[in-house]
């Protein structure tokens, strides 16, 4: 499986987002992960389409937008217009998940579905054929810098096993660092979101490269 590193701009320096993006580009990042929070679904407010639009002007990397919001159906068109490439939405807020995911694809974005650590993985399994990516939250969403919840690794493994025959990325977000990234990959994840483990390090580019090296080493263990 191809490893993808997705640094979360949530922990970047918002006074110099373009510069922060350049540093992770130089570190070999595959995506820029954008954590969108509305103060309703999660207890924090972060960024909206305007920031995504600014990031789009700053990079050619895919923008991996994670909508931790109560009304993703209403706001998805704005993020598509702003330049999002991937749009991941939470099963916990969806009334008609299949319709929401199809609408995201119709807007020209790759749809993804995600669930919180205390949400049963069975809730998303019926929709695997409709998505390009499943995001497993390994912390409760809202703030960066939280500790990894290892119990969610079984969910990643279940999704990976259930998606045999599908072209599907399994993403893990929350507490990913050099100590936890190997376990995430061995559990079945191939897209690794890291915030403080990249942007809060003295050398951002090097931190990105080191995270990839650890992830790819674990992936090699899986394939041998």
Layout of strands and helices, then pairs:
Blueprint (H helix, E strand, L loop, with lengths): L3 E4 L9 H10 L5 E6 L11 H10 L4 E6 L3 H11 L3 E5 L6 H10 L3 E6 L17 E5 L15 H10 L6 E5 L7 H7 L3 E4 L1 H4 L4 H20 L1
Parallel strand pairs: 1-8, 2-3, 3-4, 4-5, 5-6, 6-7, 7-8
Features:
224 residues; alpha/beta; TIM Barrel; 8-stranded parallel beta sheet; 8 helices; 37% helix; 18% strand; globular
Topology-level CATH name:
TIM Barrel
Strand pairing plus helix content: what structural class? alpha/beta
Percent range for β-strand residues: 15-25%
Number of helices: 8
Distance between the termini: 12 Å
Widest sheet: strand order? Answer: 1-8-7-6-5-4-3-2
Q: Total number of β-strand segments? A: 8
Provide the number of structural domains.
1
CATH architecture annotation? Alpha-Beta Barrel
The CATH superfamily is identified as Aldolase class I
Description of the molecule:
With 224 residues, this protein is of the alpha/beta class. The chain has one domain (4-223): Alpha-Beta Barrel (TIM Barrel). The chain is 37% helix and 18% strand. The chain has helices spanning 17-26, 49-58, 72-82, 97-106, 153-162, 181-187, 196-199, 204-223; strands at residues 4-7, 32-37, 63-68, 86-90, 110-115, 133-137, 169-173, 191-194. It has an eight-stranded parallel β-sheet. Helix 5 (153-162) links the parallel strand 6 and strand 7. Helix 2 (49-58) runs parallel beside helix 3 (72-82), helix 5 (153-162) runs parallel beside helix 6 and helix 6 (181-187) packs parallel to helix 8 (204-223). The model has no long low-confidence stretch (mean pLDDT 95).
């Amino acid at each position: 499986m191809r490893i993808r590193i997705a640094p979360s701009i949530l922990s970047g320096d918002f006074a110099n987002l373009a510069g922060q993006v350049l540093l992770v580009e130089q570190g070999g990042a595959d995506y820029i992960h954008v954590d969108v929070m509305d103060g309703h679904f999660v207890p924090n407010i972060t960024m909206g389409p305007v920031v995504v639009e600014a990031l789009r002007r700053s990079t050619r990397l895919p923008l991996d937008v994670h909508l931790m919001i109560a009304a993703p159906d209403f706001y998805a068109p704005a993020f598509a217009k702003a330049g999002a490439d991937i749009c991941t939405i939470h099963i916990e807020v969806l009334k008609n998940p299949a319709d929401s995911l199809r609408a995201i694809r119709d807007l020209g974005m790759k749809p993804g579905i995600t669930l919180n650590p205390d949400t049963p993985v069975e809730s998303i399994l019926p929709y695997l054929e409709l998505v390009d990516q499943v995001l497993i939250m390994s912390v409760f969403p809202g703030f960066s810098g939280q500790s990894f919840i290892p119990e969610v690794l079984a969910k990643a493994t279940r999704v990976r096993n259930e998606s045999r025959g599908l072209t599907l990325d399994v993403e893990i977000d929350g507490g990913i660092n050099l100590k936890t990234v190997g376990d995430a990959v061995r559990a079945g994840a191939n897209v690794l979101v890291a915030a403080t483990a990249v942007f809060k390090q003295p050398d951002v580019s090097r931190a990105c490269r080191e995270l990839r090296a650890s992830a790819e080493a674990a992936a090699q263990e899986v394939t041998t």
